[in-house]
Amino acid sequence: QSVLTQPPSVSAAPGQTVTISCSGGDSSIDNNYVSWYQHLPGTAPKLLIYENDQRPSGIPDRFSGSKSGTSATLAITGLQTGDEADYYCGTWDSSLISGVFGGGTKLTVL
Amino acid sequence: EVQLLESGGGLEQPGGSLRLACAASGFTFHSYAMNWVRQAPGKGLEWVSSISGSGITTYYADSVKGRFTISRDNSKNTLYLQMNSLRADDTAVYFCAKDANFWSGAYFDYWGQGTLVTVSS
Description:
Order of helices and strands of chain A: EEEEEEEEE
Structural class of chain A: mainly beta
Structural class of chain B: mainly beta
Distance between the termini of chain A: 29 Å
Number of helices of chain B: 0
Helix content of chain B: under 10%
Largest sheet of chain B: 7 strands, mixed
Number of strands of chain B: 11
Oligomer: heterodimer
């Protein structure tokens, strides 16, 4: 069982907006930055969001992140079929003294 | 261009050992912490271990503590993971991931393609 909790799956139609939640605790999300990764099977995971809400260069502004207390959210607007992938939140857990990921959310673009 | 190339995966029997390597290029290797992250078949990402840029500080997931050892050779720009006492539940694709800072615990800005480790008799 993952330290961070994500919904197993979300779906929406092309052009719509979807949000993916990530819930943790005081020693993880509440006191550390959250990052988000996109992973297509058989490929290298890709950084989408770092430090809660920052986008690396080359990531479209359709992807955005936010954090409040012990939860974080990834929002994807203007959904495209190419966005179908698994999405993971991650952070450092100050109590476990380890990196932690959410269980992953599979995004389906209907 | 940052490149991370893992090697050393394969089939090993329970109780056996493997050493993974990750050859890095395109950045100042000794200036960044490095990590191993794995994904078991049908499962999500699991952080395994991290090492600071100098190699002095290391961290491990409870699931591998005492069995796996992370190390780095900054003269060769290479990260290693020595895996001993392998178990069936260590079967996974192992990714090498660059940390964004010298010290562990930031975020993973670049990842390798992964190397498959299968533990089975």
